[in-house]
Design goal:
The protein is of the alpha+beta class. Helices cover about 25% and strands about 25% of the residues.
Length: about 60
């Protein structure tokens, strides 16, 4: 899964749009733009066989859960 995650990062990762923060010049503000990103989902055969495709067996690149 780590290989898939690293190999597809340019497809699913958003671009951070940085802006100057309020107050201190050291503060950074911004947001993640996912306009051109494609969600990449994957799972394992063992998880599918044990729980089925409608259970929490899917993992989305870039998310912790």
């Amino acid at each position: 899964m780590t290989t898939v995650l690293k190999g597809t990062r340019q497809v699913w990762a958003g671009d951070h749009q940085a802006r100057r923060g309020y107050g201190s010049s050291e503060e950074r503000d911004g947001y993640w733009d996912f306009t051109d990103a494609i969600p990449v989902l994957f799972t394992t055969l063992d998880r599918l066989q044990a729980s089925g495709p409608h259970a929490a067996v899917w993992w989305r690149c870039g998310h912790r859960q």
